[in-house]
Amino acid sequence: MSFDFIAPAYRVLEGIAFGSALQRARTELLRNLRSPQRVLIVGEGDGRFLTELLQRYPGAKIDCIDASERMLKLARKRLLRTNPSALGNVNFICADIVRWEPGSVRYDLIVTNFFLDCFNAVALPVVIGKLAAMSSSHSQWLVADFHIPPSGFARMAGCALVTTMYAFFRLVARIPATRLIDPALALHSHGFRQDERASFLGGIVVTEIWSRD
Predict the structure, then answer these.
(1) How far apart are CA 135 and CA 20, in angstroms?
(2) Contact present, 109 and 41 (Cβ < 8 Å)
(3) Residue 11 lies in a domain
(4) Do 11 and 20 touch, CB atoms closer than 8 A?
(5) Which candidate in 25, 123, 164, 173 could, as Cys together with 144 as Cys, close a disulfide (CB 3.0–4.6 Å)?
(6) CA separation for the pair 206, 183 (Å, rounded)
(7) Alpha helix ranges (H) inside 112-198
(8) CB–CB of 109/176 below 8 Å?
(9) In sequence order, which residues have a C-beta less than 8 Å from that of residue 96 and are 6 or more positions away?
(10) CATH code at 64?
(11) What gap in Å lies between CA 151 and CA 38, rounded to an integer?
(12) Residue, of 151 and 15, whose pLDDT is higher
C-alpha cells in the first residue's frame, strides 16, 4: 500500500471531492488534546496536519511515519517552509506500519487521520493492536475517518461516496480494504474510550478523541 502515485495531486483531489472538510476534521479537536509530549502520526500525508499540530504544541516530539516516500517529502518541505525551527522535533520515517518496529518508545498521542479505513476486517485489529502496544497507559488517540450515517439521504450519499472512494484507492494505492470497518470495537478492546466526537458533511466524515486512563 502506497500513495506515491497520487501524492503530487492528492491535495487538489481532496479539495475537489471534499473542499476543506477533511482538513477541518483533522484539526477540529486539536485544541482539546492533553498537551502531548511524544506523538506518533501514522499516514500523515502531505504535512498539513503536522504543521497545525506543531503550531499548537511546539514542544511535542513527533515520529511521522508513512509508507509513501513522496508524501513524506511533501510533509517535510511544507514544514521547512512554514515552521523550519520545528524540523528538529520531527523524525520522518518511510515504512509500512505493519513491519515497522519502534523500539521502547511509548507515545502519549497516536494520530491516524484517514488511515485506519485503508485496512480490511482482518488487518485492522492487528494494526490497532500494534499501535495500542506503542501507547502509554494514559495516552490519547486522535482519529479522523469516513463514516456511513445510519439513515436518510446522508446514508445513501455516504454509501455511494465510500464505494467510489474504495474503488479508486484500491486502483491507485493498492489499499487492502474493500469496505469501511468501524475501529471502535478494536479500540475498546485495548482500553480506549471515546471522549469527544465531531462530524462533517452530514456525518460522512467524523473525528474522535479516544483516551486511556
Answers:
(1) 30
(2) no
(3) yes
(4) no
(5) 25
(6) 12
(7) 123-133, 152-172, 184-189
(8) no
(9) 1, 67
(10) 3.40.50.150
(11) 39
(12) 15
Over the chain, what is the mean pLDDT? 92
Rg of the chain over Cα atoms, rounded to whole angstroms, equals: 16
- List all residues 6 or more positions away from 175 whose beta carbon is below 8 Å from its beta carbon: 1, 118, 119, 166, 169
Question: What is the reported pTM?
Answer: 0.93
C-alpha cell at 46: 502531505
| H helix or E strand, kind and range, residue 147 | none
Considering the domain boundaries, does residue 2 fall inside one?
no
1: pLDDT strictly greater than 70: no
Q: Which pLDDT does position 112 carry in this prediction?
A: 98
The total domain count for the chain is: 1
Q: How far is CA 173 from the centre of its chain?
A: 16
Phi first, then psi: give them for residue 162, nearest 5 degrees. -65, -40
Task: Give the per-residue pLDDT at 210.
Answer: 98
The total of other beta-carbon atoms located within 10 Å of residue 87's CB is 12
Please enumerate in sequence order all residues whose Cβ is within 8 A of that of 149, keeping only pairs 6 or more positions apart, or say none: 155, 158, 202, 203, 204
Is there a domain that residue 1 lies in?
no
Stated as kind and residue range, the H or E segment containing 151 is none
The boundaries of the domain holding residue 87 are 7-211
Q: How confident is the model at residue 16 (pLDDT cuts 50, 70, 90)?
A: confident
CA–CA separation, 61 and 129 (whole Å): 22
